Amino acid sequence: MKHLGLEETRTLLVQSLNMGLDIRGETTFTNSFDVIVSEDGFQFVPRIPAGYVLDDALYQRIFGIASGALYPYYTMLKQNGAYFVPLPENSVHTARAFFFPWLEGIPTRLDITDMEKFKSGIAEGVLPVMANLAISIGDIAHLVIAGNSGAGKSYALTYLLEMMKEQTTLKIVDPKMDAPTRWAEKNDVDVLIPDGDRSQNDFVNLVCDLLSEALQVVRTRQLALKDNARSQFTPYILVIDELLALTSSVSKSMKDTFFGLLSQVALLGRATGVKLILLSQRFDANALPVVVREQANVMIQLGNVNRKTTQFLLPDLSNLDGIVIPPGKGTGLIQIIDGKHPANVMPLLMPTYGEV
Ligand SMILES: Nc1ncnc2c1ncn2[C@@H]1O[C@H](COP(=O)(O)OP(=O)(O)OP(=O)(O)O)[C@@H](O)[C@H]1O
Q: Which residue puts its alpha carbon closest to atom 25 of ligand 1?
């Protein structure tokens, strides 16, 4: 795709804002505002005093106009509120701007035809997510995937498992005995599945045992860290699929025990490389303790994206206007809070691959 130069980008933005912003006839022609573009994003510089209010609503309107106008050359990174930057060199009339960060291009899906070959080309510890987006496995505290039925959760999980299997210790809980079980059996990975003869309470009890084992690993590692703060650990990952279904018909005391253990692993696992990967059709306080969500730093919402489906998992996202969600299977939103990527919510296309 053609690269859009900065000057060309600025012209497009100025024209789009002049025509679309509709702030009481104020345009660049009346010298009401200016647009400055850079590699990282653009600034909207208002001339103050202005006949319009510099508030969140104006910021989001500019975001919406720019986001559509610049697609597919740039992906605008959604902000929760107006992002002000000071311009101290300027006169008092233009000493502030709204800043709109962007990434060049649009999120591009990885299309993997040969998984083994693909993996051999990737550095250890790296988890590619899209063509221009990779996460370090070590930087994942806990990862959460939500999505309606058929959105691509199992497919996404299988990809993650395949990418991590050689570098981590994996334990899988699969209440539906579905794709994760097939993958685990093929790859000789421990998987806990329901036994027809046992009750749901019994099954959740076994999941609690697994969480207790994970806590034991945490404790052993904490002792190692006490002696040597630079101790390195192989990531120990506990995957729990269908979280909402798992606890939907168990006794309150069992659910409380389960939530208590899950919260402890989430809180203590972070420093010791003990990680949770949790999947559910829907996440709310009933499916996941808030403290676990707060400890998770990679959040993925697949399929149906709207205010309702995102409010628990992506609470910072006050509105979805201007976020272009790609169509197709295994698409949605991702937020990575690892201090290395912009912590904004970004459109996501999970990789497509052949048989694994
Ligand atoms: N990234 C992707 N690329 C190509 N195809 C995909 C992708 N993600 C999902 N699909 C296709 O969509 C179908 C449904 O995906 P999947 O079974 O993972 O959904 P799910 O969210 O786990 O649904 P359920 O909750 O009902 O189990 C799969 O058969 C798969 O082939």
A: 149
Distance 151 CA to ligand 1 centre (A): 6
**Is 147 a known ligand-binding residue?**
yes
20 labelled as ligand-binding?
no
Residue 147 Cβ contacting ligand 1 at under 6 Å: yes
Radius of gyration (C-alpha) of the chain in whole angstroms: 23
Of the candidates 17, 22, 19, which has an alpha carbon nearest to the alpha carbon of residue 43?
Answer: 17
Q: How far is the CA of 303 from the centre of ligand 1 (A)?
A: 10
Residue type, 26: E
Up-side HSE of residue 97: CA atoms within 13 Å toward CB? Answer: 20
Report the C-alpha gap between 237 and 24 in whole angstroms: 56
| Amino acid in position 79 | Q
What is the ipTM, given to two decimal places? 0.97
Q: Concatenated DSSP letters for 33-59?
A: EEEEEETTEEEEEEPSS-SS--SHHHH
DSSP H helical segments within 81-199, as ranges?
115-120, 153-164, 179-186
Task: Out of 3.40.50.300, 1.10.10.10, 3.30.70.2860, 3.40.47.10, select the CATH number for domain 111-353.
Answer: 3.40.50.300
Q: Which atom of ligand 1 is nearest to the CA of 303?
A: 21
* Tens of pLDDT, residues 239-258: 999 999 898 889 999 999 99
Start-to-end CA span in the chain (Å): 31
Best CA proximity match to 175, nearest among 151, 204, 150: 204
Cβ–ligand 1 contact at 155 (below 6 Å): yes
pTM for this prediction: 0.87
Domain boundaries, given as residue ranges, for the chain: 6-104, 111-353
Task: Estimate to the nearest angstrom the gap between the alpha carbon of 54 and the chain centroid.
Answer: 29
pLDDT digit string, tens, across residues 256-291: 999 999 999 999 999 999 999 999 999 999 999 999
Check if 152 has its Cβ closer than 6 Å to any atom of ligand 1.
Answer: yes
Does the annotation flag 152 for ligand binding? Answer: yes
Was 153 annotated as part of a binding site? yes
With tokens 């505290």, the residue in question is 141
Tokens representing 258 are 């389960």
